[in-house]
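2.7 Reproducibility. Because tokenized structures are sensitive to small changes in the input, we list the exact sequence used for 7-cyano-7-deazaguanine synthase, including any N-terminal residues retained from the expression construct. No trimming or masking was applied before prediction.
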Amino acid sequence: MTAGRLAVVLLSGGLDSTTVAAMARAEGYRLLALTIDYNQRHRIELAHAARVAAALGAERHIVLPLDLRGFGGSALTADIDVPKTGVEPGIPVTYVPARNTIFLSVALGWAEAAGARDLFIGVNALDYSGYPDCRPEFIAAFEAMANTATKAGVEGAQFRIHTPLAAMTKADIVAAAVSVGAPMDLTWSCYDPTPAGRPCGACDSCRLRAKGFAEAGVPDPAL
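Resulting structure tokens (single pass, no recycling of outputs):
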């Protein structure tokens, strides 16, 4: 029984992470929500993450500054145009070098300090934009590392990385969000907001979101 156990949830404010947080809550976990302010192009998502965390009753929500623009190397952290021509095969320029490795490492640190042994992340390896750090192999490798590199892990309190969306399509994720009452109206997905603060409608993330809602037969409540 998981009721009452703490879980650290990586919460970007997007559809996937919001759905995962709502799924964790539905399983009875108490939520510690972690949002990384990495000076991303779409920093508007930070405000959405705060609203989602409040709506889901997170016991604590940390927005941690970690400026990855100092590294660059991505259309989300450097002056590189966000592609608008459609989702293509391969690793896109919106990939942020080692982002999920960095984020999970920070989440692991908080989890160990807080006495949580469960971490949730909204990675998806089926209907996604080609990011290598969304694959099951990466998650399994990180979980093994977490249980090797921490005091809690070596003393027998094993960490588990939960990826409930890993094998879902975007349509599946929308359906799951509906089933657990995720506040989809509060979410933000666009990588390249317009000057008026609206989704661009053309980046990979916007396209995948629209495809998911259309295939699920559900109107997007955030539009």
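Helices lie at 15-26, 44-55, 99-114, 136-146, 151-154, 170-179, 204-216.
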